Each structure stands twice: as C-alpha cells, then as structure tokens.
Amino acid sequence: MVKTATIPAYTLENGTILRNVRLAYQTWGVLSKTADNVVVVGHSLTSTPDVSDWWGGILGPGRALDTTRYFVVCANVVGSPYGSLSPLSIDPDTGRPYGPDLPQVTVRDIVGLQKLLLDQFGVRQVAFAIGGSLGGMQVLEWAYYGGFVRGIVPIGVGGRHSPWCIAFSEAQRQAIFADAAWHEGRYDAAHPPVAGLAAARMIAMISYRSFPSFAHRFGRAHVNGMSEAPYQVESYLRHHGQKLVDRFDANCYVYLTRLMDTHDVAQGRGAYEAVLREIAQEALVVGIRSDVLYTLAEQEELARLMPNARLAVMDDDHGHDTFLIEQEALGDLVKRWRKEVIDPQLMVVQA
Amino acid sequence: MVKTATIPAYTLENGTILRNVRLAYQTWGVLSKTADNVVVVGHSLTSTPDVSDWWGGILGPGRALDTTRYFVVCANVVGSPYGSLSPLSIDPDTGRPYGPDLPQVTVRDIVGLQKLLLDQFGVRQVAFAIGGSLGGMQVLEWAYYGGFVRGIVPIGVGGRHSPWCIAFSEAQRQAIFADAAWHEGRYDAAHPPVAGLAAARMIAMISYRSFPSFAHRFGRAHVNGMSEAPYQVESYLRHHGQKLVDRFDANCYVYLTRLMDTHDVAQGRGAYEAVLREIAQEALVVGIRSDVLYTLAEQEELARLMPNARLAVMDDDHGHDTFLIEQEALGDLVKRWRKEVIDPQLMVVQA
Fold it and tell me: Which residues of chain B are within 8 Å of residue A174 when distances are taken between CB atoms?
C-alpha cells in the first residue's frame, strides 16, 4: 500500500527551498528495535514505489530483500507521477499543476529527501541501499552518508551520467518537444503530447535491450506473417510506447530524464576518481555485459575505484533491463553478498 | 558534377512497374576500352552521390578508389532527395510531388536500377563494389550479379537488416510522425515536420557514434562552461538535427529508412546462411569494433559464410561512422586488398 509523508522544507543543491514536499513510499517488513535493519530500494525512471510489482522475484521471505529480516523502503522520486511531488502536483501559488515549472531537483536532492523520510521513521542505520539505473544513481549518493549506510548495491549504472546517456535522454526529450501538443509543457491535460512521449519510450526501449535480444525474439518476422504488415519489432515498440502513454506524463518524463542527467557523484566533492575512492562501504557492483546504455566499463570503473567493492557481471543478452528480467540470478548474487557481508553485522534479527 | 539518366521502365520486386526512373549520379575517371575497370560506390542514408564530398580521403589518384585506373560511379538511390526519383519528384499522374505515395523500392531494386545505368554506360564488368551501411547493403546485392562483379567490399553492414536496426529506424520514424506538421506525409512544402526530422536525426547520430567517442569528446561539459546551459553533447545533437533539416526531406527520410529495413539477401533466394555461401566473389568485409548498430558479430558472420572473404576490423572508438571518419586507415585496408586481389585481374590499365 502506498503511504505518503511530507517533508516540511528542503533546500535543493541549487539553493531553492522546496516546502511541503510530498513523498509517496511503500514499505515491507518491520523496523527492528535497533532501527538498523533497513534496506532502501531506489526505483528506475518509470517505475513505481511498489517494489513487489517490478522486483517481486527478489523481494519477500527468504529472498535477497528478505522481508522477514529487513525493513524494505522504496520512496517514489520527486518528479515521478506515482504520488510524490511532481509536475502533476498543484502549485499552491497558482492553484494549477506545476507542469514544466516545478524546480528541477538532482539525484542528490532526492536522496537527501529520502534521508529525511528515514529520519521520520526513526531509522538509525541503513543495512544496504540497492537499485538499478536511476535507482543505482540513488544508491551511489547514499554512499556519501558514510556510516549511516553500511552497504550498497549499485546495478547497471556509473558514477556520473555519461554524455552517451545524456544524448539518449536528449533525443527522447526532443521527440516529445517535436509533438505540437507539447506547448513547452503547458499542454491541456486532456490533450497531452502522447505521440511524442510514445516515440521517446520507443527510443528508450531500444536502449534498454540489445542487438541479440531483439534478434532472438523477433528476427525479421512480420506481424501475422504478412509481408505488408509491420515487422514484429516495430509492433513491439509501438505497443510499449502506447503502454507508457497510458501510465505516465510527458512533463514528468522530461523532468526525470533531466534529473538523471544531473547524476555525478563528483559534483562539488572533488576529482571524480578520488571521490569514488571515498566510498568506504561494502559494495556489490552489478554490471551487465550486454548493457549498451551503462556499459560494463562503467561498473568495472566503480569496482576498481571503490575500495571495498566486488564486481558481479551478469552475462545475459537482455541488455540494461537484465536487472529487471533475470531476477532469480540477480537475487542469488545479492543474497550471497548480503549473507556474507551484511547479515553478520545485523544486531537484532526481527522475528 | 551530377549527371542524370533515365531508366525507361523497371519492375520492382513487388511487381509494380516504375516508368521513367530518373537516376542522378557522379563518375570519376574513365571507362577503359574493355569496360571492366568500374568501381561502384554505394552511398549511405543521407549522403549525396558526390563521393568526393564524404569519402574524399579514399577517392583520387593513387588512393583506394584510384581515379587514374578506375572508373568510379556512384548513383543516388531512389528515395533520396539528391536528384534521383524521390518523394520530392513530381508524380506525372497528379502533377504534384509523390510525397508519401512513391512506390516503396527495396535495396535489391535500387541495385537493379543501377545495373541498368551501368548497361547504359556499356560496362562489361565491375571490378569491385564498395560501400558502408546502406552502401554496404547495395554491395551485398551486387554480389548476386555473379561474374558481372569481381569483388565486393561491404563495410559496417550485415546480410539482412537486424530487428535491432529496424527498431532504431522505427523510433526515428515515430519521432517524425509525432510532429503535428507531418500530416501523414502530406505536409505543405513550406511547413515540413522539421522538429520531428531533427529528433530522428539526433537518434540516428547517437547510433552512429559510441559511448567512448562521446565520453572523450564531450565529457559532462556544459556549453560555455555554464551549468545552466545545455550539456555540450545536447548542443551537438541539436546542431546535427538542424543541419539535416536544412538539407533533407522527412518523406525521403521515412522512405529510405523503410528501404533499409527491406535489406535481406535471403529474401526469395533460400536459407540465409546458404544464400551467403553463394557469394563467390573476392570480398573484403570491413567491421568496426565500436559499431553499436551493425555489430561486429554481423561482419564476422559475413566473413565466415562467404567463401572468398577476408575480415578487416577497425578498432577505432567512433562507432558506425568510423568508416566515414578514419578514411586513411580504411583507404589503406581497401588499397592493400585491391592491389592483391583486383588489380592483377585488370586487363587494361587506363592512362
């Protein structure tokens, strides 16, 4: 069940003060008396805070995110349409939705807000933070809370958003901007830029998969085997474009891709490599060999620079989305690491 | 200088008869008396038939495409806005441009049309056909003219357009379709869907480059070093989007990407691998290790299956566009192969 909390005031990295910041979140399990059995899950670009919906294979009793031992928390990031403050929220100053005028937050800001949420819960220490993609960016920012966070599991992510990934973000935004219904984000809620958002999602879907995954799944087959019909892969992309349009908002999409582009652990902290070397936590870095977006070289870099990190490589052909598709394999990796590195430090195990 | 020829009638693969097909082309060098010193160059998606413009480093006296010895021909493909029959041409039946109604040709069709052009020249034999990307698709279709073509140099291409590449094509088309000015291709020439076409080009530009090339060139720098300004990579993409809009047409773009999607040497010829094994020509297959679009596995496959092929791998970081960027290295590869394999068979060397 989605719950909400309000952060009374938060000063963003850029100095802007956000007031009454609504955060939607879900939790599983029970916070222990010592308040240190917390697992923070970061969700990705279009995911909801309902981890059971998209990571059901690793969440639950006896699983990597073991709800009998851990208190698992996932907060919806600011900018996402799933309950937290977003472009869809009403701006108290105007009485209308923020739309394109919501102040832009950074990955660091959303983690700072989540920290205040954990403070409201009375959390003393996070056992580990875990997430892929945008979720992985949050995990790396959690590392800079030092002893408050014991372990981190960044998946399919680098220490900063690469110009390659920024380019994919920008092409997607431009597809949205090309839709005449966009109107600089001031579109009528009844006439949103659905074609542009669908095209953006199609670009994204390609980048989340891989050459071999499409080859195995679709080949050059046409829909219904009719040569006049679209290729199956075209139909697949259109279907995914339409599906996103039904559950997402274009301003939120633009906002969140810009948020991801801000990701840079070194911002304001020093030289990039030195800043990564400061991450003292036990870390399991998960890379995906077929990831064309956050290439394996990025996770190799993280694991090389972070002093207490080990690298696990998933060899599946699915591309970036492997962390959402191969949940059994991912769960095994995380559980093994957790049992060796995190569980022994857990003071009180909740019944 | 661009010249034009007209093919009186041509029956497309799908049975449609095209009449008075205008082909724009350029040539360099002189056709020998034995009419067998011909090099056919296939151009890529948005290139012109002016090879000196985009492959000037490998065209000319003493170069891989040695204009003192060879008669080099490049014909603009049907559908392209650079002089051949295209959506911009006037439909004699209506007196207005074809727009989206030009019958769709295939890669095989455009090579068949080029064959008739060579027949008009009196060409007896092609020494070799060379090209990258869409040009490489044409090269592979030339192979099925048997003894008429002595050698082939396909670059950055596979034997059929993969679903991965079709997906990139489709995402680009959808960005164009998202532009309200598109009007199903029946747009006013004064108000074309420029935003959609620019977004399509941005998607394409990403796919033509690579993660490391963007990382080295742009890093996370902002324009003018101002953190409020766009990232340099965003500005670069927008610039390329705008540049294409100034020189290309949206209907042509949609048409040519669909044309590329038809590429499949096995279509109507038999089983894919067996069909590639039929290619008896001497072949130099050039692959690019950093190519994310036509991955090296595709060129490895071509070289493995084609009985007289050798594989050359370019290790540069530029991605697919390496064949347009590293012209000196490419020229060396081609020249070495040509001198060993093609030149000795050349009967008459033109002064």
Answer: 175, 195, 198-199, 202, 237-238, 241
